[in-house]
Description:
Elements: H1 3-6, E1 14-16, H2 20-40, E2 60-63, E3 87-88, E4 91-92, E5 106-108, E6 111-113, E7 121-125, E8 134-139, E9 141-144, E10 147-150, E11 159-164, H3 174-187, H4 190-199, E12 235-238, E13 262-263, E14 266-267, E15 282-283, E16 286-287, E17 296-300, E18 306-319, E19 322-328, E20 334-339, H5 348-360, H6 365-377, E21 379-386, E22 396-406, H7 411-421, E23 425-429, H8 436-451
Helix pairs in contact: 3-4, 5-6, 5-7
Amino acid sequence: xxxxxxxxxxxxxxxxxxxxxxxxxxxxxxxxxxxxxxxxxxxxxxxxxxxxxxxxxxxxxxxxxxxxxxxxxxxxxxxxxxxxxxxxxxxxxxxxxxxxxxxxxxxxxxxxxxxxxxxxxxxxxxxxxxxxxxxxxxxxxxxxxxxxxxxxxxxxxxxxxxxxxxxxxxxxxxxxxxxxxxxxxxxxxxxxxxxxxxxxxxxxxxxxxxxxxxxxxxxxxxxxxxxxxxxxxxxxxxxxxxxxxxxxxxxxxxxxxxxxxxxxxxxxxxxxxxxxxxxxxxxxxxxxxxxxxxxxxxxxxxxxxxxxxxxxxxxxxxxxxxxxxxxxxxxxxxxxxxxxxxxxxxxxxxxxxxxxxxxxxxxxxxxxxxxxxxxxxxxxxxxxxxxxxxxxxxxxxxxxxxxxxxxxxxxxxxxxxxxxxxxxxxxxxxxxxxxxxxxxxxxxxxxxxxxxxxxxxxxxxxxx
Length: 464
């Protein structure tokens, strides 16, 4: 029984006229073959063990901004102190239990080392966590007399999948939890909910290709001064959308973007910097990276052609001549993510948290938008503009806008938010930090070093 022939695209459950055990073994075989075909393609890129690395091995750094709901911060974060090879709060940093029980991995210089050996790349890459990352696939099935039914999503994909922080105690991926919550919301409890799960498939839960399957591009040497008669052509790099929404390719006859302008709900202008709001060149209807050629053409891993806005927010407060930062236990202090409009300020998932907190705090729904809009006015921008990034291509690039949000300046929203997230967050004093101005200056200095900004990028304006 082949996977593709078995799992056809339907809006109703797929039926197997077979015992449950046979279905389980068949799916297990299909899943294993697909996974190992992918992982084996990456094998053998470097030495087999860490002891084989002589002269001293140094992997190419590969650290990508978080494209998940939550990620470990870099080790430069002063509040990040992970506990490897053990339970670290709600995050299990041990390896999966096998016949070897919990085999440990090597930790050198306070960093975890891949037990499979060198890969050629160093850093967190595209993963959410340093060290082991647990990826779970779940299948919804039910027995109906002599048949076993499998729930298919609209795309024809059967699996609910995603990363989890504790595969032993909390093995369900978030997308499956959302589906279950939707069932409770729409149909109540008991048999009605059970029926709903297998007869009502939501379009919002189409499973997209995960970012982690995209290999990092090989480094290229770019000569900006080319010989006459040899025009530059970048290597095509277009990846299937791994976000909630992406621009289509230019081959789509209905795709008519308006670059350097507001394009409906999408702002395709560059972000504001201390040099003003700059523009970019559009050639034959395709935007050109203002920082110059990269060696790659296309949209790459980004959501949009042209500028892609990535916002990062640090929540802080000042009390008795001391600056405090809202720190997530065993996580990062920043809220970050892509937005379609530079003026939004807050990433979408933080706005969702605000709305949930206000709702639970019994704040009138009509006041939610007003309170969040007022909070946006209290955002302090400390750096913005285009920056170097491994995803940048000739036709799509990242532009950042990093803020500090003074929580004490929006007391109603702040009180509701802190009550909602209080178990996972706490205020921590930033040593020798007494004013918001000092905090902004320190964050700008830190990000300038992290992004390695030079004069080709508009964020360079903030440094002069």
